[in-house]
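quick one before i forget lol
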Amino acid sequence: MGLAPVPGNNRALRVQWQQDPKAAHHLPAELCDAQQAVMNQAVRAILSARRFRIEDGPLGEAPVVLDVRPRWPG
């Protein structure tokens, strides 16, 4: 997992999952791309379940967290 700044929005972070380079070297590019999309979707679901504000975007893309603090009920 990694965090990357979002250009033009200093209150947002892109949450990125990275395939292990050694494993990626031995896998077809299509499989690596599919795994990346699934992991990004899983990260998006986890962050949403934890009530972080997530920017709308394609499910396969790394999610962008709009606020670094989660929203808690109440």
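fyi The chain is about 35% helix and 20% strand.
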